[in-house]
Design goal:
9 strands; about 25% strand; 9 helices; alpha/beta
């Protein structure tokens, strides 16, 4: 597969708009991930796969200093517009985080991106490297059970798949809970909390059908981990 993880051009434009109000992004994944991040005031945070800057804007509003990286120039234009006080960098997540020194950040947000990366072990090692002692990582993926329900076959299938999304497709690798946690632990992280995000209550007022569906079936898996000493 190509190593490009970015959502470019028309797909990037669609993703930027969709992530603003999507029941999945705006009302399920993002609230859960921000809750896991907790108090970020005066923290230096790296937003890995920052997309259109939705997380960066929230983190800035909560008092953090944010550096966002993404492989898509299309999405970074939206990120600059949405969260101009953050520092954004065009960066291929298949490559080392060579722009950052060891122990540069207090925390890392990595939302719904790691399953698009082929060299995940390198990226996880790099994220641990740039975290300060006892720094935290908050990370999410599509739920293995949701992928199993959608694509069928064996739950243990870890093939690369394409999911239609607006004008394009999202290319990612199916995984299992065992593999997801195993890669994180092998990278030297310590698990603090694992959650299966449910939609926030506000979605019921916006889209009751989506609220009911997302309350009954898991869509995402999210975790908070520590880097250790």
């Amino acid at each position: 597969m190509a190593t490009d993880t970015g959502y470019h051009d028309e797909l990037g434009e669609f993703f930027a708009q969709n992530a603003t109000t999507s029941p999945y992004n705006a009302y399920t994944d993002r609230p859960a991930m921000l809750a896991l991040a907790g108090d970020v005031a005066n923290a230096d945070i790296l937003d890995v796969g920052c997309g259109a800057g939705h997380y960066a804007a929230e983190l800035l509003a909560r008092g953090a200093r944010v550096t966002g990286i993404d492989a898509s120039a299309t999405l970074l234009r939206h990120a600059h517009s949405r969260a101009g006080r953050a520092q954004f960098r065009l960066h291929d997540l298949e490559q080392p985080l060579d722009f950052a020194a060891d122990a540069s950040f207090d925390g890392i947000i990595c939302a719904l991106v790691i399953h698009h990366v082929t060299n995940r072990r390198q990226l996880l090692a790099e994220m641990r490297r740039v975290l300060r002692p006892d720094g935290w990582l908050v990370i999410s993926i599509t739920h293995p059970t949701a992928d199993w329900r959608y694509f069928g076959g064996s739950y243990y299938d870890q093939s690369w798949v394409d999911l239609p999304h607006g004008p394009g497709v999202l290319h990612f690798q199916r995984t299992t809970l065992e593999e997801f946690l195993g890669e994180l632990l092998d990278a030297g992280f310590t698990l603090e909390k694992l959650v299966e995000p449910r939609p926030c209550a506000e979605l019921r007022e916006v889209d009751e059908a989506a609220y009911t569906r997302l309350s009954e079936r898991p869509s995402f898996l999210a975790a908070r981990l520590r880097s250790g000493a």
